TrEMBL record:
Name assigned to this protein: GST N-terminal domain-containing protein
InterPro entries for the chain: Glutathione-S-Trfase_C_sf, Glutathione_S-Trfase_N, GST_Omega/HSP26, GST_UstS-like_C, Thioredoxin-like_sf
Domain GST N-terminal: 7-88
SUPFAM superfamilies: GST C-terminal domain-like, Thioredoxin-like
Domain of life of the organism encoding this protein: Eukaryota
One Pfam family this sequence matches: GST_N_2
Length: 233
C-alpha cells in the first residue's frame, strides 16, 4: 500500500504540515488508499535521506505501492495526474492565480498564530530545536514573533477577501467540483485546526467574507470527512 511520510508535533501528536496534507488530498482525489508514517521534525531528514538515497530530506514524501518514491507536493500532484489522467487534480483553473496571491497576502500570519501552541505540544528535543532554529531565522524570540495576534487575525481576514469572489457563482474555488485550488487552501488552513481548533473556528467560521465558512463546510464533507476527522489538540 502507498505510504505517506508525515510531519507530526511529537510521537502520537498531530499532523501540522500543509504540504503533507496537500499530498494526502491529492491521493484521496485519486481514490488511492494509503497508510501514514508519522515523523517528528528531527526524524525527517535521516529517514527521508535513507529512503531517497540522499536525493531529498523533507516531507511530503510518498512511496507508492508500485515502489515509486515521489517527493515535493507539486511533483506528487503531477505524478498522480500523469499516472491517473482520468480524474485530474490540476485542471488549469483560472483560480490558481488568485490562490497564489492569497498565499502571498497571508505571509507568516497563520504560523505566527499557532507557533507557541505548536511548541507547547512538542517533545523537549523538538521543542528546543524549533525555538533555536526559528529564533535564529527570525532574529527574535518566538514570543516576539507571535506578538499582536489580533493583527494577524485581521491580516488573515483581509487575505481571504481575495477568495470570496471565487465563491459567488460556484461552491468550490475550482467551480462545481473541488480540485487543486480547493486542496491548496484546505491544506494551508488545516494545521490551524489541528493545532488550535478554537482559532480555526474564529478564522474560518467567524470570517466576515461571504462564502468562506460555507466553502469550508463543503470541503469538510469530502472523502468521508477526512479533514474534519483529522486528529487535533
Amino acid at each position: 500500500m502507498t505510504q505517506v511520510y508525515q510531519l507530526v508535533s511529537k510521537s502520537g501528536g498531530v499532523n501540522y504540515s500543509p504540504f503533507v496534507i496537500w499530498s494526502e488530498l491529492f491521493l484521496l482525489h485519486k481514490n488511492i488508499e494509503y497508510t501514514t508514517v508519522p515523523l517528528t521534525f528531527l526524524d525527517i531528514s535521516p529517514t527521508i535521506k535513507k529512503l531517497t538515497d540522499d536525493k531529498w530530506d523533507k516531507v511530503p514524501t510518498i512511496k507508492l505501492s508500485n515502489g515509486d518514491i515521489i517527493f515535493d507536493s507539486f511533483e506528487i500532484c503531477s505524478y498522480l495526474d500523469e499516472k491517473y489522467p482520468e480524474n485530474l487534480i490540476r485542471r488549469g483553473s483560472k483560480a490558481e492565480t488568485t490562490i497564489f496571491e492569497f498565499f502571498k497576502s497571508l505571509g507568516q500570519c497563520t504560523f505566527k498564530l499557532i507557533i507557541l501552541d505548536l511548541e507547547a505540544n512538542m517533545d523537549a528535543i523538538n521543542s528546543a530545536h524549533l525555538r533555536k532554529s526559528k529564533e535564529t531565522l527570525y532574529g527574535m524570540t518566538l514570543e516576539e514573533f507571535a506578538a499582536n495576534p489580533e493583527s494577524n487575525v485581521t491580516q488573515f481576514y483581509q487575505a481571504t477577501q481575495l477568495l470570496a469572489p471565487l465563491l459567488t457563482s460556484a461552491p468550490f474555488f475550482e467551480g462545481e467540483e473541488p480540485g487543486f485550488c480547493d486542496y491548496l487552501v484546505a491544506g494551508r488552513i488545516q494545521p490551524l485546526r489541528n493545532i488550535n481548533p478554537k482559532l480555526y473556528h474564529k478564522l474560518i467560521h467567524e470570517n466576515p467574507n461571504n462564502g468562506i465558512s460555507e466553502w469550508a463546510r463543503r470541503v469538510d464533507e469530502l472523502f468521508g470527512g477526512y479533514l474534519k476527522k483529522m486528529k487535533s489538540l
